[in-house]
Amino acid sequence: MTICEQNRNKTDSSVANIVTNLGVKRSAEELLQRRKPIAVALDKVQRDSCTIADAVDIWKQLETDLALDSPDTKQKLKKRIQQALSAHAITF
After folding, report:
1. What is the biggest distance separating any 2 CA atoms in the chain, rounded to whole angstroms?
2. 78: three-class secondary structure by DSSP
3. Is 34:66 a contact under the CB 8 Å cutoff?
């Protein structure tokens, strides 16, 4: 928003309208908050020293952090867990 304000004459009006739209800003902030736990979990799982036990803990923590309300979203997360972990690791 600051960049658009400082460069008002150089900024395309359609871009400026989107950037200054508070609804878009709020949606982006909300999406960032909802996706941040996923990014943190990915960073942890992709470490060179991550073990299967660590991955199981990370997946469990992610499920808690996301506080899933929707049954559809819960099902999607369960599917991803099954893809990522073996059957022996899933029994948590």
Report:
1. 61
2. helix
3. yes
